[in-house]
Write a structure and sequence with these properties.
By secondary structure, the protein is of the alpha+beta class. Helices cover about 35% and strands about 20% of the residues. The protein is built from 13 helices and 23 strands. It has an 8-stranded antiparallel beta sheet, with no helix packed on it.
Length: about 550
């Protein structure tokens, strides 16, 4: 098995090879939709091309020249007029004319730290023009003052501002700014350690925390600040490791983009750090994965997570506001095994852009083109066909070990109110009347659904799409390994499907007297699950083996 330094170099070469062969647009850039991608790929291309220890297939002098050209183009986009309202910023979308594109607040949040770190790490290799361009960009960023913000929300924006307070304070010998950065870092770290992170599994923004503080760690000289940065990165990797599953991020997400849901594709930083799954065959999101050392100082954190073979239940409290637990908490539950995970958050929350991903069955990340998650949801605000995110409300869940139940009350929402959508990974599937049984790798998935359904394979997204109509609806999903099935006497998918069919004949779902109900036993171990909700969507009863669901044992501790 390779180590994280070797794997980072693999990603470096992969990104550099990709960058060298990217077609250039008429403007000279590679990308217009997101300016940052130009910087990420050019940083990798230049780093690989100027390193004598790195082997690439293209002429290194051409790679270095191309990388430098793109880097200079990106740096020229910065707003350099001190009187401009967006002084120090870059545009995000370049439109048709990059040098007329409007500046945006987002790019500099991560780019500021990366540019400072890149100059620190590779400046000695640069010619005068490129090195001067980096130094000019750093000076304008420092003078831009956009990062001088108080810590209020304890989110990814503020984490990146704090990193730059530390970085610019160090590089420009601004002792007051450096002290402010250290104080804010301490406040942020102590608060999330005590009360938890509000942004639960927010992808890709969690990686912005990791990368920005890794840049600061490389540049900080003050011993107290440096120790805080080590502690912060250890904490972040502990959070990541809680629900790590061979490149996949199990459990619920407060946010997620299309390359995170319904398939874990943004996995390069995981690959570098954990290394227990193959290098992805395409780059969903690059950022600084192949160049930036981002490991925790306590290496055992990620080593033990990659080597884990136990079965465990992860119960987490998620603060509505990290500094005020009186506002309440969400409750996250994830059942982790070496082969799959089942997890979700008990409470529905819209989150930013209505991106909450509430529950799923998660399988390890893969390279076979299939999604690695299975889940069902009612489409809500922001939903568009083919994008399996943006859930609606009036649903409740019951989560227990290898099983998840979700009931959907009749909805008055205007967006696809009568539709329930399901996402299933590719595999061997048998479809019954109102149940489905599949074998994906070594894991069986059994699905029961209340109403009739149709399904179609979505080749573009690499999944089986299930659609079920009806105002009131429900699903129950169970996962177990082939070993568990064999122990129960089922030696094939056909036999598992037959067991699921017998289970369905017991009448799992019902709706009467204003109550929507699921009652059934799991196939894996016979646990009795019951969930009752009202037509208004509130929970009336939620039991496991006739005992009410308890939130005791949920904690912010790692």
């Amino acid at each position: 098995m390779t180590n994280h330094i070797e794997r980072r170099q693999e990603v470096l070469v992969f990104a550099a090879e990709t960058a060298f062969h990217l077609p250039r647009l008429e403007s000279g850039f590679w990308f217009h939709r997101d300016m940052r991608d130009n910087l990420y790929y050019a940083m990798h291309l230049y780093a690989a091309s100027t390193d004598p220890e790195v082997t690439v297939s293209f002429p290194k002098d051409q790679g270095a020249r191309l990388g430098e050209e793109i880097l200079l183009l990106v740096l020229k986009l910065q707003i350099k007029e001190p009187d401009a309202p967006m002084y120090g910023h870059w545009p995000l979308n370049l439109g048709n004319d990059p040098f007329s594109a409007s500046p945006h607040t987002l790019p500099v949040e991560l780019l500021g730290s990366l540019i400072a770190w890149y100059h620190h790490s590779f400046g000695a290799r640069m010619g005068i023009e490129l090195r001067s361009a980096f130094e000019e960009a750093m000076r304008h960023a420092y003078m831009g003052d956009y990062y001088r913000k108080p810590v209020e929300y304890f989110n990814h924006h503020e984490s990146k501002y704090i990193a730059q307070q530390i970085i610019w304070g160090e590089l420009f010998r601004d002792e007051a700014l450096a002290a402010e950065g250290q104080a804010n870092l301490r406040l942020l770290l102590e608060t999330i350690q005590a009360n938890g992170m509000r942004e639960y599994s927010a992808m890709p923004w969690f990686w912005h925390w990791v990368q920005s503080f890794s840049c600061a760690r490389a540049l900080a000289k003050d011993a107290d600040t440096l120790q805080l940065l080590h502690n912060m990165l250890d904490y972040l990797w502990e959070v990541r490791s809680l629900t790590y599953l061979k490149g996949a991020w199990a459990g619920p997400h407060s946010r997620g983009l299309g390359h995170d849901i319904p398939a874990d594709r943004n996995t390069l930083l995981d690959y570098v750090e954990y290394g227990d799954f193959p290098l992805p065959d395409s780059i969903a999101r690059l950022e600084a994965a192949g160049i930036l050392p981002a490991s925790p100082s306590t290496k055992e954190i990620t080593f033990e997570a990659a080597a884990r073979t136990d079965v465990r239940e992860v119960r987490r409290l998620i603060p509505i506001h990290p500094q005020n637990l009186a506002e309440g908490c969400l409750h996250s539950y994830t059942f982790m095994t070496p082969d799959f995970a089942v997890g979700g958050v008990w409470e529905r929350a819209t989150e930013f852009d209505n991106e909450q991903h509430r529950w799923d069955v998660t399988l390890p990340a893969n390279r076979d083109g299939s999604v690695n998650k299975a889940y069902f949801f009612r489409p809500g605000n922001g939903f568009s066909e083919g994008d399996y995110r943006h859930e609606g409300g009036l649903s409740q869940v019951l989560l227990h070990r290898n099983a998840a139940v979700s009931l959907f009350a009749p909805s008055e929402e205007p967006v696809k109110a009568e539709l329930i959508l399901g996402v299933l990974p590719k595999g061997d599937w048998l479809f019954g009347d109102r149940q489905m049984a599949g074998l994906v790798g070594d894991v069986y998935l059994v699905v029961h659904i209340m109403n009739p359904y149709t399904c179609v394979e979505n080749e573009e997204r690499g999944c089986i799409e299930v659609r079920s109509e009806g105002g009131a609806n429900g699903v129950a999903v169970e996962a177990f390994t082939a070993g568990t099935a064999s122990a129960r006497g089922w030696g094939s998918l056909t036999e598992v499907a037959a067991a699921a069919s017998s289970q369905a004949q017991e009448g799992l779902f019902s709706s009467m007297d204003g109550v929507l109900q699921f009652t059934g036993k799991t196939l894996a171990d016979g646990t009795e699950l019951r969930l009752d909700i009202s037509t208004g969507g509130s929970v009336k009863l939620r039991t496991i083996n006739e005992s009410p669901v308890s939130f005791e044992g949920y904690t912010v501790a790692l």
